[in-house]
Amino acid sequence: MVFVGACSYGILSTIVKLAYWDGYAIEVIAVMQALIGFCCLWIFSLFTKTTTNKVLPLQGKSKWLVIVSGGCIGLTSYVYYLSVKYIPASVAIICLMQFTWMSVLLEWCLFKKRPSQQQLGIITIILLATYLASGLQDSTNIHWKGLSLATLSALMYAGYVVLNARLPQTGGTSITRSMYAMLGSVITLSIITFPGLIAAQCWNLQLFRWVILLAFFGTIIPPLLFAGGIPKIGAGKSAVIMTAELPVAIISACVILHEPIASLQWWGVGLLLASIVYMKTR
After folding, report:
1. Distance (Å, rounded) from C-alpha 102 to C-alpha 82?
2. How far apart are the C-alpha atoms of 58 and 174, rounded to whole Å?
3. How many other CB atoms sit within 10 Å of the CB of residue 3?
4. Dihedral in degrees, nearest 10, Cα atoms 123, 128, 129, 131
5. Tally of domains within the chain
6. Locate the EamA domain: which residues (predicted)?
7. Is the Cα dihedral 236, 237, 238, 241 positive or negative?
8. For the ranges 12-16, 58-62, 128-132, 165-169, the one whose mean pLDDT is highest
9. Exposed, middle or buried by CB within 10 Å (0-12, 13-18, 19+), for 53?
């Protein structure tokens, strides 16, 4: 379940790229994905109420904190989708995976949790692997605006991970918490992208082909599978299995989008994946 959920996340960048090629604006895609995801999770929450009587409801401050955290993850997705407009999907996912070491440094800066020498060594290897995997050796083919946006999305995601780990985790089922987080995404994205939503000329039935796919693989399936799978195998093993998102994203970009991946980049991907797995197991 955890593996399939991670693979679902892995194909999002490819779907977004296809939607771009079909002429749809990022503002419309991001907001509609979050809205459909929220509606589906709300329906699921109605059916789970009768079977979760032992779980305390999500109330007051905790509910608002979850909504705010959802706004943060919504912004992360929006910036990540923007980056895919300028750079290959395979490069965008490599940049996004930098959140693994950024979160370590953020904990150091915000909470004085100094990383060990071993962690710093792994971060150095991750940066080297990223350089190889992204194809930065041939910088003429890399759009620096897209690279900057993808790196910003990684930093925002790292901030979300660090802060969310310190939020109170009591009250509400996993589905309920996911629903309120998605509500935060809908509100935040609607405010941020409002001018673009008004100006968009791509409101048609074909739009739902893309946003339903994005909502299904990005905001519906992963939370449900993670809620069922992670408690059975634990957070440590889950964190390792969830790195499957990286190779799946690159393979789908290569097979579906026909993005060229050089042999040196594959070596970089392998080194990056091994480094992330080692960091998470430690």
Report:
1. 20
2. 11
3. 15
4. 130
5. 1
6. 1-134, 145-278
7. positive
8. 12-16
9. exposed
Regarding pTM above 0.70, the answer is yes
What is the C-alpha separation between 245 and 277, in angstroms, rounded? 12
Q: Domain range spanning residue 226?
A: 2-281
Phi-psi region for residue 276, left (φ > 0), alpha (ψ -120 to 50) or beta? Answer: alpha
Helices within 216-256 (DSSP H only): 221-233, 235-241, 245-256
d(Cα 130, Cα 216) in Å, to the nearest integer? 29
Where are the alpha helices (H) located in 85-220, listed in sequence order?
89-96, 99-111, 117-134, 144-165, 174-192, 194-199, 207-215
Distance (Å, whole) CA 276 – CA 282: 10
Q: Which residue has the tokens 């999002």?
A: 12
The answer to whether 16 and 197 have CB atoms below 8 angstroms apart is: no
pLDDT at 58 over 70: no
